[in-house]
């Protein structure tokens, strides 16, 4: 857990409470505010360039969403990530995204698959260059393309409901040494099945990929090493 953090100042026409909510949540999801970090209203307000009232309102909303935890007489903290949380979310993802891969396999066009392949090539180049954020972003394109192509609105809505928590867990998994390199290879297997229009194999490959991520997170105790 880091002892200090830095947020960007706010400006614009949106309500200060909404802007503070978005800024603090984004910092939580990207681990700029790590699990267990103490959130001091006055410090957050100073960094964001606003008063404490919208910050207090934003923290209350984040508490309702499960991203911060208020402990009586102690303060407000970024909610810890437990292995139960991680396990539940990745179990759901394995089922949902596996199904999405099976549904999407017959309907992807060659051009769409080639575009995914290009993103995976870019992920490999970013990985070789040590650019973890870019590697993760390019790799995520495969997941997004499959979910979008599955043409199942209920699956899409459930996935969106999980997505914000998934972002934080993904950021943790990206920190595990070698994890992104493994993910690229696993993504290649999913893509190969999609090229073959083999829905059953695509589903299996996607589930194996997400179960592999979960296994690595489990071995790291849910808290990937910093760096």
Can you describe this structure?
This protein has 227 residues and is mainly alpha-helical. The protein has two domains: 63 residues, Winged helix-like DNA-binding domain superfamily/Winged helix DNA-binding domain (Arc Repressor Mutant, subunit A); 137 residues, GntR ligand-binding domain-like (Four Helix Bundle (Hemerythrin (Met), subunit A), Up-down Bundle), CATH 1.20.120. 68% of the residues lie in helices and 4% in strands. It contains nine helices and three strands. A hairpin with a 3-residue loop joins β2 and β3. The radius of gyration is 19 Å and the shape is elongated.
- Count of distinct structural domains: 2
Number of helices: 9
What is the element string, with H for helices and E for strands? HEHHEEHHHHHH
> Strand order across the biggest sheet?
1-3-2
Please state roughly what percent of the residues sit in beta strands, choosing from under 5%, 5-15%, 15-25%, 25-35%, 35-45% or over 45%: under 5%
Radius of gyration: 19 Å
The CATH topology of the largest domain is: Four Helix Bundle (Hemerythrin (Met), subunit A)
Secondary structure tally: strands: 3
List the helices and strands and how they pair.
Elements: H1 16-29, E1 38-39, H2 41-48, H3 52-65, E2 68-71, E3 75-78, H4 83-104, H5 110-128, H6 132-149, H7 153-174, H8 179-195, H9 199-219
Helix pairs in contact: 1-3, 2-3, 4-6, 4-7, 4-9, 5-6, 5-8, 6-7, 6-8, 8-9
Features of this protein?
227 residues; Four Helix Bundle (Hemerythrin (Met), subunit A); mainly alpha; Arc Repressor Mutant, subunit A
């Amino acid at each position: 857990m880091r002892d200090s953090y830095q947020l960007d100042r706010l400006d614009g026409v949106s309500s200060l409470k909404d802007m503070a909510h978005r800024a603090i949540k984004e910092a939580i999801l990207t681990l700029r505010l790590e699990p267990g970090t103490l959130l001091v209203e006055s410090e957050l307000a100073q960094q964001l360039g606003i008063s404490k009232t919208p910050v207090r309102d934003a923290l209350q909303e984040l508490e309702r969403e499960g991203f911060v935890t208020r402990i009586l007489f102690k303060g407000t903290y970024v909610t810890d990530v437990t292995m139960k949380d991680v396990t539940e979310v990745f179990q759901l993802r394995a089922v949902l995204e596996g199904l999405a891969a099976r549904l999407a396999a017959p309907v992807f066009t060659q051009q769409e698959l080639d575009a995914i392949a290009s993103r995976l090539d870019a992920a490999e180049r970013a990985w070789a260059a040590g650019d973890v954020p870019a590697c993760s972003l390019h790799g995520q394109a495969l997941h997004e393309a499959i979910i979008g192509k599955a043409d199942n609105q209920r699956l899409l809505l459930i996935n969106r409901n999980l997505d914000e928590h998934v972002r934080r867990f993904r950021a943790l998994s990206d920190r595990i040494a070698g994890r992104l390199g493994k993910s690229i290879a696993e993504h290649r297997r999913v893509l190969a099945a999609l090229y073959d229009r083999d829905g059953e194999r695509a589903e299996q490959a996607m589930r194996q990929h997400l179960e592999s991520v979960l296994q690595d997170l489990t071995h790291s105790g849910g808290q990937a090493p910093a760096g």
